[in-house]
Queue: 2 jobs
Job 1
Amino acid sequence: MQFDLVSPERSLASMDATSVQIPGADGDMTVMSDHAPTITTLRPGVLKVESGGTSHEYVVTGGFAEIGSQGVSVLAEQAVAKGDMTQDQLDAMMDDAQDSYNRAKDGGNVDDAAKLLADMVAMGGEIGLSPKQPSL
Amino acid sequence: MPNLKDLKNRIASVKSTRKITKAMQMVAAAKLRRAQEAAENARPYTERFNAVMAGLASAAAGSDSAPKLLSGTGSDQTHLLVVMTAERGLCGGFNTNIAKLARTKAQQLVAAGKTVKILTVGKKGRDQLKRDFGDHFVGHVDMTEVKNVGYADAQNVAKDVLGRFDAGEFDVATIFYSKFQNVVTQIPTAQQVIPFEVPEDYEAPDTLYDYEPDEEAILADLLPRGVATAIFAGLLENGASEQGARMSAMDNATRNAGEMIDKLTIEFNRSRQAVITNELIEIISGAEAL
């Protein structure tokens, strides 16, 4: 099964994968070959790819995944290999999420923004960095 | 007849101008390669994104509950023109062509009784539109500090635009940029980003997708990102176009300087010859008089 991970700036990965675990907006889903064609949005999280016995992990935020007959393509607004993720990058992402939450508080979709923020914190914990505590 | 010293100085000055234009051309060529690479790297994302978005949008276009970014506000009274140009000049007609297209569009809209608002990205477009449409300016995004355009820069512009849309400041947004065809041809382009338009040549794929969460939620999530993606694509095209235009403009300048040097050198040699002939005549006639 073909797997592609692209960000707006470049293509990060293109490989033959046996399974891909996607952090979907409604929960994680693992895709193997011959999965039903699906489009799902992403929540901030870790994308795990199994390919020929080795596994690759990427931190992704925002975007969507398209599962088709040929394979999976993940279009993420921000995507970084897990090992390359730094505390600074996480902090910047947290600030962004906090910003949109603050804006949502005065008339907007507060629930969505709060979920985004909570997902960020969970993601930070998962990749072993210490996320800032959000102010809700 | 200009004296020899003056000619010599002029030749020297044109020579140093040629050196500068030659260097600028080479720098532009190097930057062009990088800009083209960046534009190419971004293509897979943009293509896939637009394909999925067109599919969702064409399915949802008819429904009443379609998001405003797709169905519009129900009016087209106020137009926002996002004019994206370079921060620097000396790149041929690049900035002028974009500004000209935007000006024509603005004039048409004003003539049709619409309200026009202009958001400029890049200093040069702002300078050129200031005289005719200065009172239509609603904002400016400064890109002077940006060396290589990143997605974050496009997001900043998109955030500005979307914020204004949410505040009800305009109904229709169009971006202006220059499409890069090759080094000599750049096509100034206007593209409507709000409301989102399904491309005319779009054909629905055979695959039927499952949607998670559901189609409307995905569409609502993707539409704002679509604005950023379109702006990002525009900025990248602009980046390549600017360098391409500068490269050919500087190539022309270098060639013109070369021609000028040749002409001046001939003139210089002629006058030197004339001076020598004059001197000889004086010497000979002096000797004959003795």
Note: The two ends of chain B are 31 Å apart (CA to CA).
Job 2
Amino acid sequence: MTIHNLDLILAVSILLTAIFMIAKNKMQYRTKDWVGGGSGTDSTKHKGGIYYNAKKEEFPYGKTKTYTCGEDVNPRELNTAQDTFYNTFIKTFKLNKLKKLHTGRLTDYLYWIFASLVIILTILVLIL
Amino acid sequence: MIPSFLAIPVLLCAAFLIPLAGIHKKKWVPILAITATLVSFIASLMTITPLLNSTDKILTHQMGSWQVPYGITIAIDQFSLMIITLITFTGLLAAILSKKYIKHSKPEYYSLLCLLLAGLTGMAHTGDLFNLFVFLEITSISSYALTAFYTEKKSCEASIKYLIMGAFATSLILLGIALTYGLTGTLNMADIAIAVNNNPSPTIPIIIGLLLTGLALKSAIVPLHAWKPDVLEATPIPIGAIFASASTATCLYAIIRILYTIFDIHLTTLMLAAGTITMLIGAILAMQQDNILRLLAYSAISQVGYIMIAFATDTTSAIFHLFNITIIEALLFLSVSALLINTKETGMTKLSTMNLNPAKIIPTAFLVGALSNAGIPLLNGFSSKWLIYITTLETYPLITIAAVLTSALTLAYSLKAYHMLFRSAGHGMGKGPGTATTKQQGDINHNTAQKNTGPAILIPLITLIIICLYFGIFAEQGELISQQIAESLSNNNIYIQAVLNK
């Protein structure tokens, strides 16, 4: 009996919290505010513990927040560097060693040509 | 007279007339170049009917009415006509796009472009080994000059590297030709084929090795590829489109002509090994590039690997893939050149912060090219890659796995490039931290009001997209044409008899 009551209290409290959160979110979107712009800037103001953009601009991405390392960032300044793509794959298989072989030095490339010539001639003499 | 042969004098005349036209009226310069390439393309199309109506499906002509094998022979079969059509077609599209890309209608640029195309078409026309070398040199010299076109440190360095490595390659080819002449006493390809067949000599492997190494360097087969990324990064991008597509196709044509027609050998093991290494290393290196032009250069290298594997296993798929890759590489480079009309920046990380304001056709063209390059169904790249997978699966399953893996890598780096160029945060949101309009422009159009659209961009890109889709959806047509070409290549006696009138 006691357990039943506790369950009921818990369920009601979860339901109420959910309703409260949904209502709060709806109000937030109705005013077309979005979180971001960086805390403490001129364009932001404090409102209910959350920093809102004073311009009340509609957020273009359907996301509520853009952040990196715990810091809010302006999506316009957000960018992904090229070397972050497939970085783990490249490092795991040590594929960057191939790139390092391309030194840009002409002497190295001429050596490659000479080595290739020797290999091709050897193979052809053996197979023909 | 063979109609397509008209392309060589027309392009050579245009190359010499353009600087003269540039002295008086610069606006005539691109028009002259476009007209010359258009005439060449029409001439190559006009050759299709007489070629298919001929008995042997080979058209021959003796220059100056000299008797075979003393005069210079012009011999066109289905394979060489395909290459000539591809050269003139990509040349035409590059010339059209250059009108928008190159500022002040620089006469030297268009003159060198026509000279480059004349050399390439000449290589595909000739039935004479020394003539092939002469046209290769015409191509090479114009390529070195076009690489150094911007006269910046990067361009000059790339050009000097290319010049020295290219000189090494042409020296090897010339040495191979000299040994061939010493062995057979002739330079006519058909005549050499008979002489080699009648008198096998221990020097033949050395001759093949020298010719193969020289042409492999020109085709940028790993490990002889090092010049290509530097050159494609430094050269004007429409020229890069020709280097990556038509130039590579022509050098591969020369390799196949020498191996199949002259020496009648199929170096299966060597082609498979070199093809697999080229395919994998090209894709792995492309993944690690920040510069979009270097990425595309390594991608082009990787695709050459596929073609080599296909030549070792099934000629039909090799010819189909050669055709498709020429179209795809042209589409990728031309879409990037259309995108970068207002900037000289080519690093993807920086480009992703810039508002380049591209016309809608440009991301579409790049995406079609990238997906086709990766072998996504309904695009032409898939049609030929599928053939390669099927034919290699029976005999070399490990190579099929490597080919599929390379396709996955191709998709990975292609989508990365697409994301960074067209879908990053810097795009479509006004002026980002470094807009294209703030950069110093050099020889590139820097009219800030200029939007990268107009017929000069739309015509090449839409044409190439349509071809990609057509040969993706109606793949059997491309396969049928490739099969006919492969059959003509498989029997070198037809070529020999047609050239020597026997």
Note: Chain B touches chain A through 50 residues (CB under 8 Å).
